[in-house]
Amino acid sequence: MKSFLSSALLILCAVGASAQLRQPTLEEAAARRWSQLNSDRIAADADGQGITLSDIRRQIDPIVGQLRAAARSDVEFELALKQAAEETLRSMAERQLVIAEFRANTPELPASYVDADIEETIRRDFGGDRNRFVASLRAAGTTPLAYRKTIEDRIIFEYMVGQIRRAAWDVNPGKLQEYYDKNKNDFARKEQVKLRQITITQGAAEKPEETAARAAAWADALRHPEKIAGLMETYKIGGKPLAGKPSFADVAERISTDDYARKGGDAGWRNLDDLNQAVVEALRTTQVGEVSAPLKFDVGAAPLYVIVSPEARRPGGYAAVNEPEVMNEIENKVRSINLKAAIQRWLDEIRAKRHVQLR
User: Fold this and answer.
1) What is the DSSP letter of 23?
2) Which helix (H) or strand (E) holds 337?
3) Residue 175: CA count within 13 A, CB half-sphere
4) Cα–Cα distance, 249 to 194 (Å, whole number)
5) How much is the pLDDT for 79?
6) Average pLDDT of 57-80?
7) What percent of the chain has pLDDT over 90?
8) pLDDT over threshold 80, residue 284
9) 248-251 long-range CB contacts below 8 Å, 24 or more apart?
10) Which of 319, 291, 288 is nearest to 305 (CA)?
11) pLDDT digits over 303-357, tens only?
12) CA-angle at 57, arms to 51 and 63, nearest 5°
């Protein structure tokens, strides 16, 4: 693999780097040189299926700009481009081996699967117009038959990987506990609070003292929900009518001016160390489920007020393995590990039966 990339793709990397770095006139010269030196040819054979240089370039082209931006030098850029080419070739070869394995052991893929996929694409992307679909294929330099082969290969590959994913998806409690015990430091956390907040900013026609009075009125109403409807009428708050006993979230959605408003003021779990000291003091003196007094902050020319309500607290230390968030995180990580190992074993088995030949 490395010897191939050091020869067949060396030009791809060097010329690609030149095209990214030179002035326009030199880029034109590099493009002409690319055309002369990189006439398309078979770069590798994966169990009878050819992989061309143009196949590899098409996969790499979308990320060349990103690689260039991340590189600190021409040498680093060329190395990154070479590594991307190597990884692309390996990925394409493995994909072809998986498809070959399916074809060798499974009856032909039902045509209806491919037909349904293509019809959905025509409906979704071309408004049901098959002529537009065919024209787009022609513009892209391909044909309906070649496109159909591409879709068939994709369905086969996704099916084969899906079989392995299902086998690796089940994780037993013992595996979860084992992962937690080995990685317990990953679940250390500081003292936290789950909170909701409402931010009140000064209106264009308001005086500072009027904003302060409005913030105080809302804090009082949040402690006495029976006052909320009247206060909404007083301040002409629109929106969907409230049903039942109004909650902090109901009010936050309608009057808060911060980014949490659309989530009912839900700011989630926060480390106390990360919060403003005035907010921390208010949270420490406000019981779970209660509402703080408005906290004034001088930001710019006009003050703003924040009302907070803690919903739950967690002490510092290690998160318990049976907490839903922790359990979900561990499950995802264990499944990812299992899937990666299962796919690697599976590919090793396929490689033992099939071959990739570099040219």
Assistant:
1) -
2) helix 324-353
3) 14
4) 14
5) 87
6) 84
7) 50
8) yes
9) 248/196, 248/198, 248/222, 248/291, 248/309, 249/196, 251/198, 251/218, 251/221, 251/222
10) 291
11) 999 999 999 999 999 999 999 989 999 999 999 898 888 888 888 877 777 666 6
12) 135
Query: Position 348: which residue type?
Result: D
Cβ(223)–Cβ(247) below 8 Å: no
Beta strand 49-52 with 302-314 is unpaired
Would you say 237 and 261 are in contact if contact means Cβ atoms under 8 Å apart?
Answer: no
Separation CA 217–CA 211 (nearest Å):
10
Residues 6+ apart with CB under 8 A from 37: 11, 15
Give the chain's mean pLDDT: 84
Q: What is the pLDDT of residues 153-176, one digit of tens each?
A: 999 989 888 888 887 787 888 989
Q: Rounded CA gap, 101 and 159, in Å?
A: 12
Sequence-ordered alpha helix ranges (H) in 71-189? 74-105, 111-126, 130-139, 144-169, 173-182
Annotate 167-227 with DSSP letters as a single string.
Answer: HHH---HHHHHHHHHHTGGGGEE--EEEEEEEEEE--TT--HHHHHHHHHHHHHHHHSGGG
Mean pLDDT of 245-254: 94
Place of tokens 């991340």: 70
Per-residue pLDDT at 282:
96
**Model confidence at 42: pLDDT above 70:** no
Helix (H) or strand (E) holding 284: helix 277-284
How far apart CA 198 and CA 201 sit, in angstroms, is 10
Q: Is 0.70 topped by the overall pTM?
A: no
Which of residues 54 and 188 earns the better pLDDT score? Answer: 188
Q: How many CB atoms lie within 10 A of CB 296?
A: 16
* Residue indicated by tokens 């006139």: 25
Give, to the nearest 10 degrees, the angle between helix 53-70 and helix 74-105.
140
Q: Closest Cα partner for 273 from 191, 187, 196?
A: 191
**Cα distance between the two ends of the chain:** 10
- Contact in structure between 116 and 109 (CB atoms under 8 Å): no
